[in-house]
Design goal:
Length: 442
């Protein structure tokens, strides 16, 4: 079976091949426009390619189906965690983390916001990488680059054959999060805080969300979570009483720095505000979740179809311990190792990148905390238009890693990073390929 967007990719590359000098000059303008934009990650402009990820309605239907299966699996895992102490014991959570997860946030949806990362070639061949349900980000990267790319000469020429569209990832979240608040409280919030630790947040993305909330007439603040204070039964930022928090701080960092964020935590336990989302998202977010999904003792939680999905599309995952270390080391090229909970690919190592001696050191490093090993999935590369610094045109095979955005249990679209290395993340050499929905012109 061919890749889902092969026809569009081939057509676009052939278009660029017909006049590479003109498009190379336009690509320089595109890069300059990114540098002037809000597409900033870790203080640097997001690296963009002169090509997006093309997809059509047929692919959307497949992605929606895949997303719904993952949502159902995650909900069943979370429910089992809440109800069964034996299931909770499978997770490497501290007492504070367990307390946060068990606390009732005032609504039943365990994961209001998620980005499920996967390698995808077609409806039969795909494999999940991890579930980012805690502080999910990168909406800004896709939307800013998407709009800039659609304004490029390459996309304008391609639009002579197709309708092209980049999905908005900001307005739907604003509308859905406000709807959840209104369902709980019977009214809209007067104030919102988008909260994270300043050193960990993505400020340009927060600004975009702030502007969208304020267009709805709601005062919105961007505090460091340390600045939030619990007093008189309410959560405050300065003199402002906060009704709703769009939580961007990850649960693990919150627990690590609990003493610094005590005001927020005390108010959370007191249900002094509506927190979207709750800490229950940590159940599927923790990388140990994939190992638990492969535990035969708990297959009864899922339908036959869900168990088949897990077997075929969740990489085999096990706990990385002294007992499994030699197994992983003996067949190192088969595996990737990861801390059970980390940010930005920290502590993630592919065995094929290291000698046996080096990999043993990496295993010992990762095993300083709860960790997992996982079958390394060899993804098929996709062809991308590429211009070097001198404007020379070539076609480069790069591997896309897709992130499915899920808002309130509904598929919204995808975010894509591409790269040539075995690990594709913001800490490695990568490019963002904005997602472009394609439809035929009538």
């Amino acid at each position: 079976m061919t890749r889902f967007n092969e026809t569009y990719v081939n057509e676009y590359i052939e278009q660029i091949r017909q006049d590479p000098k003109r498009y190379a000059e336009d690509y320089k303008k595109y890069v300059e426009a990114i540098a002037r934009s809000r597409a900033i990650y870790m203080g640097e402009p997001v690296p963009g390619l002169y090509q997006g990820i093309f997809y059509d309605e047929k692919t959307v239907a497949v992605w929606e189906s895949i997303a719904q299966t993952m949502i159902a699996i995650g909900e069943k895992m979370t429910q089992a965690y809440l109800e069964q102490a034996a299931y909770r014991a499978l997770f490497p959570f501290s007492g504070e983390m367990e307390k946060l997860i068990l606390h009732d946030p005032g609504y039943s949806m365990p994961v209001p916001m998620a980005r499920y990362d996967l390698f995808y070639e077609n409806e039969d061949r795909f494999m999940f990488c991890e579930c980012n349900t805690d502080g999910s980000s990168a909406m800004n990267e896709d939307n800013v680059l998407g709009q800039l790319l659609l304004a490029s000469e390459g996309m304008r020429d391609f639009s002579e054959r197709y309708h092209l569209h980049n999905r908005d990832y900001f307005t739907p979240w604003v509308e859905k999060s406000l709807a959840l608040y209104e369902e709980i409280q019977g009214r809209l919030p007067a104030t919102i805080a988008i909260a994270d630790f300043k050193e960990s947040g993505t400020p340009y993305e927060f600004l975009e969300f702030q502007e969208r909330y304020e267009k709805k007439g709601i005062r919105t603040f961007l505090p460091d979570i340390r600045e939030l204070v619990y007093q008189d039964g309410a959560l405050y930022f300065g003199e402002e009483k906060i009704d709703m928090v769009y939580r961007r701080v990850t649960s693990s960092e919150l627990v690590e720095k609990a003493d610094e964020a005590r005001g927020f935590l005390d108010a959370y336990y007191a249900n002094a505000f509506v927190c979207i989302g709750s800490m229950r998202s940590q159940v599927i977010h923790n990388k140990k979740a994939f190992a638990i999904l492969h535990n035969p003792d708990w297959r009864h939680l899922f339908t036959d179809e869900e168990n088949a999905f897990i077997a075929g599309h969740i990489p085999y995952t096990g706990s990385l311990t002294e007992a499994t270390k030699q197994k992983v080391l003996a067949d190192k090229d088969r595996y990737i190792i990861k801390p059970a909970d980390s940010r930005g690919s920290a502590g993630v190592y592919v065995g094929a990148d290291w000698s046996k001696e080096e990999y043993e050191k990496k295993i010992d490093e990762v095993m300083e905390g709860p960790a997992i090993y996982q079958d390394y999935y060899v993804a098929e590369p996709m062809d991308f238009v590429f211009f070097d610094e001198d404007g020379n045109f070539s076609v480069q095979p790069l591997v896309p890693l897709y992130g499915m955005f899920i808002y309130m249990g509904e598929f919204q679209g995808v975010y894509t990073r591409v790269g040539a290395e075995r690990i594709i993340s913001g800490k490695t050499s990568y490019y963002v390929a904005p997602n472009i929905q394609v439809s035929e012109r009538g």
